[in-house]
């Protein structure tokens, strides 16, 4: 009996036949054997044919492709180089990234007809902050001491450098340090700066008598150091030991390093003093900062009088909006444009002006070997100062029309006649302090940049809407001061300048789409009006909760029933 074969039969072997030899199954050998048995045997292959056959078989394998791919690539390159003429070099056009080029004038020309025919804005200035207090209001609550002060550990003399609001930082921080160390603070000395060129003293800008009186139960403040102490230093303050303190030092550093020297010498000097105290500090230090900034510092009577007069005149000119006006802090002075290193549409003349301004103000800082300045990247990053035209486009997109009164807080605008023309066309009721005040009223302050800035500060503080267009101490202090006055809400528009750079450089955007983007930006500023201070935030911008307390519902209802 034969065993059952489960392999399919080829038809040539019987079930009892033995399996064929592997050699006999090779197609190549079968072909040779059959060919040998037939007449007309083909001629043997040549050497070239055999080499081609071997090469083809190798290339058909995966490893072969990787081996011969570099050879094929080099052969192709050599062939291509032989067919291309190098007499003509192809031109590669560089296309700047969207948002990296100043094209706002072209956008304004495109949007102007539809913008002028848009009548959909109704009473925008009175309804802008409709969601501002949904989280509840806040009120000022700074505790004051009523008892006497212990014996002083010595005198602290500081030099406040910078402009108006950087000096304000130094004053408030000096009050906090002196109170914490139980020292007597000498009225801060203002350092003369080559940029601001203002020789004003403390009493020229602030009400010195009111400042001392407001802090009398918290910090001792004197105008001069007693003679018996200065006698040891030949009555020369430069001979007094000067602490070179690192920026943003903690209050513990003052306790551990400054206090021992103060106890030893009875007087120390700290110069410069701007930004020499960390934003984070114990509640006792923050309380003194709040007290100094929001209650003790008041502008001098002459500055306050003119500032209040200009506020009243702005309200008179805003009668069609119930006395409400917008204030805009515009930083488009020549030194600001030069420092930013941004490029606008002034061509070669602008370049010459900016190069000269940079050399005049910063002497070689921008021309150091290896320094690379990329204006396009600066613009994309939202660091370029907004032009007057861009501010006007933004505000019109946010719903403010030609009937809106605007106060412009600024220094001398670069190339003002050209740059201010479109803004005045969009907002004909725009005013500046030079337009509101007579030449005689401004004369006592004209050559003093800090005093002029203090007048701008006062008019901006009392506006219904404040618009900041560039960073800096001026808007940061106004943010906090307005929050302190208006129930915790800053009532401030803070535009997203990165987003603006893309929108202003978009030639395809229409008025409706542009306006929708601006209204969203305005709504975002409203929702961010009330913000609590976080770690590393400045108490001068975020007074809640260190300087203010939340108004509870019972207090709200009690106050509403009284009215």
TrEMBL record:
<comment type="similarity">
    <text>Belongs to the glycosyltransferase GT106 family.</text>
</comment>
<keyword id="KW-0808">Transferase</keyword>
<keyword id="KW-0294">Fucose metabolism</keyword>
<dbReference type="InterPro" id="IPR019378">
    <property type="entry name" value="GDP-Fuc_O-FucTrfase"/>
</dbReference>
<dbReference type="InterPro" id="IPR024709">
    <property type="entry name" value="FucosylTrfase_pln"/>
</dbReference>
<dbReference type="Pfam" id="PF10250">
    <property type="entry name" value="O-FucT"/>
</dbReference>
<keyword id="KW-0812">Transmembrane</keyword>
<feature type="transmembrane region" description="Helical">
    <location>
        <begin position="65"/>
        <end position="86"/>
    </location>
</feature>
<keyword id="KW-0119">Carbohydrate metabolism</keyword>
<protein>
    <recommendedName>
        <fullName>O-fucosyltransferase family protein</fullName>
    </recommendedName>
</protein>
<dbReference type="GO" id="GO:0016757">
    <property type="term" value="F:glycosyltransferase activity"/>
</dbReference>
<keyword id="KW-1133">Transmembrane helix</keyword>
<keyword id="KW-0328">Glycosyltransferase</keyword>
<feature type="compositionally biased region" description="Low complexity">
    <location>
        <begin position="1"/>
        <end position="15"/>
    </location>
</feature>
<keyword id="KW-0472">Membrane</keyword>
<dbReference type="GO" id="GO:0006004">
    <property type="term" value="P:fucose metabolic process"/>
</dbReference>
<feature type="region of interest" description="Disordered">
    <location>
        <begin position="1"/>
        <end position="43"/>
    </location>
</feature>
